[in-house]
Amino acid sequence: MYSEKYQESLAAVSAARTKNIAMEPERMTAKQKEDLLAAYHPDYKASEFSVLKIGPNKGDKVPHELAEMLQAHSRISASDIDLSSPDYETDVLVIGAGGAGTSAAIEAHEAGADVIIVTKLRMGDANTMMAEGGIQAADKPNDSPAIHFVDAFGGGHFAAKRDLLAKLVCDAPEAISWLSDLGVEFDKEADGTMVTTHGGGTSRKRMHAAKDYSGAEIMRTLRDEVLNRKIPVIDFTSAIELILDDSGKAAGAVLMNMETKELLVAKAKTVIIATGGAGRMHYQGFPTSNHYGATADGLVLGYRAGAKLLYAETLQYHPTGAAHPEQIFGALVTEKVRSLGAKLVNRNGEVFMHPLETRDVTAASIIRECSDRDNGIETGNGTAVWLDTPMIEEIGGEGTIEKRIPAMMRMFEKYGIDIRKEPILVYPTLHYQNGGLDINVNGMTTNVENLFVAGEAVGGIHGKNRLMGNSLLDIIVFGRNAGINAAKAAKTTEIGSLTLKHVDAFEKEIMDAGIETDAVSPKLLPDYTRKVNA
Ligand code: MEZ
Q: What's 533's DSSP letter?
């Protein structure tokens, strides 16, 4: 139920619905997309970026908030830590317990390695849990990994590392079977075949889903598998620095108990960073669809240890974050809503774009509609456009929303909005870190031996924009891949003496570059304390 101020616009949306359902909005040309992105996408706003003064990516630009963390002081100095008697020793240390970390741990364990998972919150407190719309895999007769590759490569502005993207799409069908065999309940037709839908930028229906809580269903299954295998999970404990050995190989991490702040040392033959994304950095002041712990920690850990970043200047603003009511501001409204037929409509009830353009283009169109075109709806918390959800019931028949996107329905129902009958207000929300640590196809960073990365902390798999459903896919494909290869490397690794010299060396770089900062990193948790004016 919307207040009086929305009624005129709601009436226009409702009056135009039948015509809007029938209309087929034109696709933009490549040139139109380029111009739109340059003018309206947050990644193109030069004033929001800083040039890094130190570290492996010196000279590159990243968002101000990330630059501050990458060039911040460590939480420790090397002399604080006694590395001579580690608290934990293992073959493979996995940092992070979302979908990528747990998949990596399962495969490393399967390969016979001793594995420890360390996580700053609890297992499954991760963006995986919050992923809604689905996971892509070309496993239907009209599709192929090659077509999947072409869609994702184009959607990512032809910038993806080809070997990483090829692995993603080629391993996708097997990833679905693996998850299915572990117990993930994907949506199926009566004959047992998987239900698949389109996403933005896909030329085939290859989105597999568990209704609109696909990530939660996948995480439930992976968590059970970790527990069944009795893989040790050290929770409420963050990694705050990587440990190297005297030949520069990753060899463990300094850990911090989140409650007591006690420092611990974990020694490992190989390390996997699977710390997830960065939405809680709130780049450019955007709200986020991300989990509370998404603070770019893995990028900081890797960077200070010498690992390179790739495309850290590119972020994904999911076009449809909830813009109203305030209690769910920024929460994800899954792209599946558009896959099922809902169109984006402005204040006057006009469809202003094709609903399944890629996410960067869709987000930029919404921003243009709400800014220069002045066709947005004032919410009291900014402006927004309508996502006309009742179209779904008109197209798919009564009951479609409850069957296919029940979590969406419940989320809005709590606030008195029945999405079967009323449209919802949306605006872009910070959703995904396209960039991250640069890896080879075996999952190891390009310049720190035995340091593996999986999941959202990786850069380069998707290029400069990711398609829907390729993230749940990459955490599985590259999580498993990292686990297998980290276990293999651990078999032949001899660890030299442990060192934190790189931490002190980085501190010296900060001083030498004249960087004046009080910031410490990794951030670990966002700071939402209210700043009181003096
Ligand atoms: O891949 C994603 O980010 C995804 C499936 C999100 C969504 O819209 O549901």
A: P
